[in-house]
Amino acid sequence: MPTIAIVGAGPGLGLSIAKVFGSHGFDVALISRSKDKLDTLVAELAGSGVTAQGFPADVADPDGLTGALQAAVARFGRIDVLEFSPHAGLTMTAPQDVTLDNLRPQIDSLLYGAVAAVRTVLPGMLAAGSGTLLFTTGGGAIAPYPMLADANIAQAGQRNWALNLHNTLAEQGIYVANVAINLMIGTRAQAPEGVPFRAPDEIALDYWDLHTERTRPEHLIGA
pTM to 2 decimals? Predict the structure, then answer.
């Protein structure tokens, strides 16, 4: 069975992606900090007939994240798809207010975490001559928002690297894409008046399309 590893798994988009890939025959490795949250997600996926297991790790801890992904490989055999979408928390930070202290958590989680995750799963993909790496950022990675300057820096770096990987790994059978989500992830009932939104179950279908089409280096989800 092919396996998808979802780094930053949660009850929203991560769970929806797990259900979509699981419905197409994938086993699912879920990675986030909270074991209790992972247990809940695994139970919900089991109710949908999807085989899943949680592997607790903090994406800001490279050794811990590497260990969790290695445990997932030992459990499932190989990671065929990596989806990377941790949430490092959003703080209102203007460009002139960026400091080393408020930037470091974003860099540790979103950029260094992505590098640690890819370094762990990529050798197996290269050996097999196939694999998919999907990165998730906000729209600010492309067109920055002044009030999210610290997150924008880290996401832009992650996006730049994803596009570089796309251009250099395609000939070796590895597909890489960045997904930039420039709206609220939620339902009409959850979205404030006038705020563009899209339900996580709908967004997750785009990830499956990217994985199967294997052409676009970037996909923007906007209003």
Answer: 0.96
